[in-house]
Amino acid sequence: MNILVIGNGFDLAHGLQTTYKDFLKFASFFTYNSRNPNELNSYDNERTSSIEYFINFFDDDPKISDELDILVKDNVWLTHFYNVQIKEGWIDFENEISKVIQTIEDIHKTINNNTNRLNKQVKVERYQQEILQYFNPYIRYATEKTIKETKEKGLKDLNRLIRCLEIYLSFYINNVPLEKTLPDIERLPDIDKILSFNYTNTYERLYTRHPLPEFDYIHGKANIRNNVDTNNMVLGINEYLKGDEKNENIEFIAFKKFYQRIHKETGSLYKNWVAEIKSDQKITNIHTGNNSIISDKEDSKHHNIFIFGHSLDITDKDVLRDLILNDNVQTVIFYMNKDDYGRKIANLVKIIGQDELIRRTGGPTKTITFKLITEID
């Protein structure tokens, strides 16, 4: 079985504008009710000309344009992201969401712990005020009612944000003409399964092979026919609680990825693939007979995993460990340059541990190979 794992770097390698900054730039036109790219700061002339195109693209469909205007109106998450400085990746985007949610939860815990205060009102610390300034600019003192309203507004607007992203991806990105395939993908053996952490259908559009591989869109798939309620895209945060608390404290569970995967029914087809891989591992039976030790061994069936455009961040630790930590699996990880190579090594340490990484990247126990991505014109 040959499994291809793809992340956002796969779309970026095809020239698609799928960074969170691309999305925010797009959303800002509807937020500020502007169709003139020159009214906003441009960080890339090519992207600006493309933005002019997709604004016209959306204006040709008033229904979609009207829906976007509603989705972005007074959306606290968009306001927050327009005004904070974070790094480049979607993981940094999600970490910023996590920082806000944890701040709200910390205030909530403080309220619950101050049972002797009148109405359980507590003072909000200055750093907490700064984090929540776009969610509640007047939050100097907080009560149960304040926190409940802030949480509910945050969840409602997160769902509106996700639907806005779905429209951007399905109505625009999935319709951008694709011309060139990636040499490294073309050289792969026939792919049986694709585990996509993306919401887009880039592989399906460009790499038409028969029979088509089985797809697992583990974070959902963008579909223009959806709405806020039927959208199945997972965009949230990882579990930050420890020990028993993560099972007992479920106040903010709706923001967490594992909950969204279950609630939005994105599926976990990859678990079936992992079960097949494990069932194909060699079996060793040791028993005694006539004062001797007899060992019965069966040869393993080997499988291949190719990882392209995924940062190997710890947020997907459970999924990646299930795939990589099998002795009958050979894993090839593509990287862009030396810096990217170094980041991927460091991230793998967080996922499988230092000793396991050393064991699997050299000698007779080697199962992990790193490969430089071939440059394309």
What features would you describe in this structure?
The protein has 377 residues and is of the alpha/beta class. The protein has helices at residues 8-13, 20-31, 45-59, 62-72, 76-83, 90-113, 126-131, 144-172, 183-186, 202-206, 245-248, 257-263, 269-279, 317-324, 338-352, 354-360, and strands at residues 2-6, 122-123, 141-142, 193-196, 214-217, 284-289, 292-297, 303-308, 329-335, 368-372. The strands form three sheets. Strands 5-4-1-8-9-10 form a six-stranded parallel beta sheet. A two-stranded antiparallel ribbon has the order 2-3. A hairpin with a 2-residue loop joins β6 and β7. α2 packs across α3, α4 (62-72) packs antiparallel against α8 (144-172) and α15 (338-352) crosses α16 (354-360). The radius of gyration is 24 Å and the shape is globular. The two termini are 31 Å apart. Residues 35-44 and 292-297 have low confidence and may be disordered.
